[in-house]
Q: What sequence folds into this?
């Protein structure tokens, strides 16, 4: 099952890239592959055994001597967290391909093939149970991203791409060294074997953490983020914010902390402190941005730092909230960015100064935008409200002042998201909006509505996700337990 | 009764779903009736709950129903559960009952608006949110309802979002209420940390064991809840959003900003009275904030000229009375004032809506005058509301003040004195409103704009006004137990106990309150009847009326101490830290890499496509290498 999930997009990538179909055919084929992946993921969700640990596993010998006599195995499988990350990837990629069809990208065959390659890499890294395999996925993700960012997108894309690649590469190299040291010294790259004999090395932990915290990103390692989010095509931005940032948080939860539990616990205040700073900082900066992408980009920074707070709260509430928030924020930020893309298609810009009035006479568009904005600001009762509340409870249990200050983020999120929505939708028409600017079309609705329905489902039954991820967090149960490990 | 409870809660949400999916496939008129129908279904279910509960013994009247586990982690779970007890049934009846008639009134009021369908979606969504708030059996669901009523309020205040004022007012309301949400969230944090649950039953039974009476944590918990309550109920210091909220359509003002949502703070304190009793200082603070608000709002109401804002400040003042009630421990007296206020204030707003409707949208009382002849029914219905507001009948305000006399002590004495002073103010502003609107000479504006020949309004508008007027008159009997087998206080005794004032305290307080209210009324009537008297009356107060017209400068204060510094901080953070420090790290990294790569400088052609080709080729080589070493 897991193997099928990994290689279906890769096969799709090859077929889409090589078959000389016309534009429409290429697009539909890529979409079909992405939807098939999502269906496969849904089947895995149905068959998933709550509390059953890592499932759908495949574990075969791959390279018997990788160097220094250490074997590498092809070991993949899914715990609850992996399963939902795979589902998020499948949904995000399918939505992105749909949005690319609406936008009509140039050289569509390569563009969509690279999207599917990206999906392959993401699913591989989210399901790998073995460090070398994980690293392969982690680096393989950069190849399609590099080309997607550097070839398609805005004026300043080259500079943005190089910044992004160089910055994240530094973290990756540190992690590569750490994986090598860890594997050679323990004589295995198996995740389960390594976590059952935790390491005490501060340097190795920090090397792993660096890679993940740059990708997430943790404040103040987000220097690459604004230009990357502004210059990429909107589909790539949506994936960066919705899915790829989650790879960073995933790495922290599944690798950095369980591999070095006591070191991570000792260093938690570094991450909690920077996370809190980033939560407030991102929200404050988002409030004064002058473009729609800028607001969601910095809100994304704010949210990812909240997730890091949840992880390093080191208790069940915090990490469960963080994982659920990864799912929620993934869906909502994909939706928010793709919706911005629809505005850009209509107005040619996302600058607030020349926009406004989109709600006048466009009931469908305004409703869809409103729902996305409300979820993004974590309106009480929504699924994001649940995940944020659990993170904040976890933070409060760790340290009351931390939880109290972080809760202020609730007000700040309301301020910047309402400003975002009002600037686009309310008052009179902006310069680039005219009465002829169309409401959402059927094809655009077909992208937006499934994402909103997912948000509704998550809201009706958060426990459906939360109960499936509570078992995969032994390392986070209680601080006392961590110290004993 | 479990099924009825879920029907009551989810019927309005079903209305939202139906209207959203139907969209423009049904006519505007049909959408309005469908929205109303779902509201009445909820009301019918609430009545069913009431009947069921009356058949039970007083001690059995508390039921918890759980649909499913809503959220959870390894250690803390939140059920999707409702609590049906006399307190929640009272609120359900007020919310769904008054809600349903006001939604019905909207059929006439919003007739012909291009966004008529959307209005009914929002109204039904509000009813669902408010019912969730009052039915929730744990604090997390309560907070969910709490935030969702704030959201509905935002959507409805900003309903006419083509103009900037409603948009600004809506945002202000949402953000100030979000501050209150943080307060409740912090209270939840303490509960989960120390008690491991937020279910009402468990929290209330174990709170005093974990948190000693008057201890810092007990105070923090109560203070957090109080922060939520003052934000939602527009009490000092988070009250400034309510007058601005009058930008919304009038039925919204009647339902959300008078009858139901704004009184949620009173419900919260009554529901959590165990936690407030456990923090006596904070409970006294509740009463004192209530007194301060009722007096300040009463003074501001004297000088307002917008008919809706006069009623809005009156609402703020009346909620101040309710806060004083729950602050001194007279919970059911506070809840009773909440009930009667829902009727008479809803009535006054809907009456004002008829006036505004008749004048083509004009809200300034100076441009009205002499409308009594044209709108006789409205005038008499509004007199019923005015008499109730001043406090002659249904005696709900006097019950609060008499309880203050019975209770004694500093806070309760301040409540008694302040409340009576407030009665005088109420007499003035309530009478002034009626006098300026319906009596005297008709203004030129009114003469020109008064729609002639189409009566006061369609029956869908006048019937709800009449129903609320009858409700106002009948509700008084609940307090004195006339015609019912149980007084309101006994009905709530288990869920929200109260103070029983003696008959003499009741009589004395009521007599003074009537006298002061009547004096205020006569004063206002004569001041506006005799030219010159008003100026003479104002003169000794010097600049005070001007201060009141500026609403005591709260908005200016918040702009100066909060908004302007925060905006400046945000800009400077972006200009300096983000641009120089954070983006600087990126340049630093790039610089270091360039230094390291000097040896291979020839390869840096700067063309992305070449980089890409090299990267893909390198990856391919690696891939081949790995596959060749595989021993599958």
A:
């Amino acid at each position: 099952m897991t193997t099928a999930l990994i290689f279906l997009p890769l096969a799709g990538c090859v077929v889409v890239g090589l078959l000389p179909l016309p534009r429409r055919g290429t697009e539909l084929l890529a979409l079909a592959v992405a939807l098939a992946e999502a269906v496969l993921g849904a089947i895995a969700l149905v068959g998933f055994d709550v509390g059953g640990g890592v499932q759908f596993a495949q574990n075969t010998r791959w390279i018997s001597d990788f160097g220094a006599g250490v074997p590498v195995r092809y070991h993949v499988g899914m715990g609850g967290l992996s399963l939902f990350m795979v589902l998020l990837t499948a949904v995000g990629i399918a939505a992105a391909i749909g949005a690319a069809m609406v936008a009509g990208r140039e050289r569509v065959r390569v563009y969509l093939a690279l999207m599917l390659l990206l999906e392959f890499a993401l699913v591989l890294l989210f399901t790998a149970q073995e460090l070398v395999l994980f690293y392969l996925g982690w680096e393989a993700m950069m190849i399609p991203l590099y080309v997607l960012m550097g070839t398609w997108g805005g004026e300043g894309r080259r500079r943005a791409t190089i910044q992004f690649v160089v910055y994240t590469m530094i973290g990756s190299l540190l992690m590569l060294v750490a994986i090598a040291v860890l594997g050679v010294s323990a004589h295995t790259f198996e995740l389960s074997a390594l976590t059952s004999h935790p390491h005490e090395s501060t340097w190795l932990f920090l090397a792993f953490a660096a890679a993940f915290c740059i990708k997430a990103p943790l404040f103040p390692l987000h220097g690459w983020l604004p230009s990357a989010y502004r210059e990429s095509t909107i589909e790539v931005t949506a994936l960066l914010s919705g899915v790829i940032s989650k790879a960073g948080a995933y790495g922290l939860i599944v690798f950095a902390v369980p591999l070095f539990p006591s070191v991570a616990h000792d260093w938690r205040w570094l991450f909690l402190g920077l996370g809190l700073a980033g939560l407030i900082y991102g929200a404050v900066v988002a409030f004064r941005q002058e473009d729609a992408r800028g607001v969601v980009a910095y809100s994304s920074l704010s949210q990812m730092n909240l997730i890091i707070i949840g992880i390093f709260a080191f208790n069940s509430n915090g990490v469960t909230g963080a994982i659920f928030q990864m799912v929620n924020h993934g869906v909502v930020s994909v939706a928010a960015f793709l919706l911005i893309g629809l505005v850009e298609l209509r107005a040619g810009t996302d600058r607030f100064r020349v926009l406004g009035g989109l709600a006048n006479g466009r009931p469908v568009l305004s409703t869809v935008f409103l729902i996305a904005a409300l979820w993004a600001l974590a309106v009480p009762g929504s699924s994001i409200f649940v995940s944020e509340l659990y993170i904040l409870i976890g933070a409060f249990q760790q340290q009351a002042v931390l939880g109290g200050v972080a809760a202020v983020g609730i007000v700040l999120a309301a301020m910047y998201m309402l400003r975002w929505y009002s600037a686009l939708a309310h008052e009179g028409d902006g310069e680039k909006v005219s009465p002829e600017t169309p409401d959402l079309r059927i094809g655009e609705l077909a992208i937006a509505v499934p994402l909103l329905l997912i948000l509704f489902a998550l809201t009706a039954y958060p426990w459906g996700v939360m109960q499936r991820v509570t078992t995969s967090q032994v390392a986070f149960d209680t601080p006392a337990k961590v110290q004993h490990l | 009764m479990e099924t009825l409870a879920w029907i009551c809660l989810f019927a309005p949400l079903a209305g939202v779903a139906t209207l959203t999916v139907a969209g423009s496939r049904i006519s505007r008129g049909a959408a309005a009736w469908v929205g109303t129908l779902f509201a009445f279904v909820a009301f019918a279910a609430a009545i069913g709950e009431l009947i069921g509960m009356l058949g039970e013994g007083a001690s059995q009247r508390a039921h918890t129903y759980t649909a499913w586990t809503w959220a959870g982690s390894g250690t803390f779970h939140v059920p999707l559960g409702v609590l049906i007890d006399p307190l929640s049934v009272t609120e359900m009846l007020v919310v769904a009952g008054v809600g349903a008639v006001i939604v019905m009134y909207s059929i006439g009021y919003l007739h012909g608006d291009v966004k008529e369908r959307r209005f009914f979606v929002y109204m039904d969504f509000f009813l669902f949110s408010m019912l969730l708030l009052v039915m929730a059996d744990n604090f997390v669901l309560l907070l969910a309802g709490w935030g969702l009523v704030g959201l509905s309020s935002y959507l409805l205040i900003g309903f006419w979002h083509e103009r900037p004022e409603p948009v600004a007012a809506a945002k202000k309301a949402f953000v100030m209420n979000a501050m209150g949400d943080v307060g409740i969230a912090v209270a939840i944090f303490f509960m989960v940390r120390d008690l491991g649950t937020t279910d009402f039953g468990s929290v209330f039974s174990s709170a005093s064991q974990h948190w000693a009476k008057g201890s810092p944590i007990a105070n923090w918990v109560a203070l957090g809840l109080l922060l939520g309550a003052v934000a939602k109920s527009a009490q000092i210091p988070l009250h400034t959003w309510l007058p601005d909220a009058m930008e919304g359509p009038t039925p919204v003002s009647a339902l959300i900003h008078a009858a139901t949502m704004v009184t949620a703070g009173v419900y919260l304190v009554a529901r959590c009275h165990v936690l407030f009793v456990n923090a006596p200082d904070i409970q006294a603070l509740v009463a004192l904030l209530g007194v301060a608000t009722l007096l300040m709002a009463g003074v501001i109401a004297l000088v307002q000229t917008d008919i809706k804002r006069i009623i809005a400040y009156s609402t703020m003042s009346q909620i101040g009375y309710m806060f004083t009630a729950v602050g001194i421990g007279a919970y059911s007296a506070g809840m009773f004032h909440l009930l009667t206020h829902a009727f008479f204030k809803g009535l006054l707003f809907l009456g004002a809506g008829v006036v505004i409707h008749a004048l083509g949208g004009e809200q300034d009382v100076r441009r009205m005058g002499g409308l009594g002849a044209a709108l006789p029914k409205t005038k008499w219905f509004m007199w019923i509301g005015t008499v109730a507001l001043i406090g002659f009948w249904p005696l709900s305000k006097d019950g609060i003040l008499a309880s203050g006399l019975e209770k004694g002590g500093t806070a309760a004495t301040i409540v008694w004195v302040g409340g009576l002073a407030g009665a005088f103010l109420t007499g003035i502003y309530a009478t002034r409103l009626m006098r300026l609107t319906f009596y005297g000479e008709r203004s030129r504006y009114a003469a020109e704009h008064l729609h002639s020949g189409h009566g006061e309004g369609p029956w869908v508008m006048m019937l709800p006004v009449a129903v609320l007027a009858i409700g106002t008159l009948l509700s008084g009997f609940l307090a004195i137990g006339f015609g019912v087998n149980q007084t309101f206080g006994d009905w709530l005794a288990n869920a929200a106990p109260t103070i029983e004032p003696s008959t003499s305290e009741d009589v004395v307080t009521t007599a003074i309150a009537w006298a002061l209210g009547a004096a205020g009324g006569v004063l206002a009537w004569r001041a506006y009847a005799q030219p010159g008297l008003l100026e003479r009356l104002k003169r000794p107060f010097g600049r005070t009326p001007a201060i009141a017209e500026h609403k005591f400068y709260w908005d200016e204060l918040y702009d100066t101490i909060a908004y302007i510094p925060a905006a400046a901080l945000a800009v400077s953070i972006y200009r300096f830290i983000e641009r120089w420090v954070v983006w600087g790290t990126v340049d630093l990294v790039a610089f270091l890499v360039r230094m390291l790569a000097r040896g291979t400088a020839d390869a840096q052609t700067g063309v992305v496509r070449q980089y890409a080709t090299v990267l893909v080729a390198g990856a391919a080589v690696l891939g081949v290498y790995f596959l060749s070493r595989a021993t599958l």
Summary: The two ends of chain A are 33 Å apart (CA to CA).
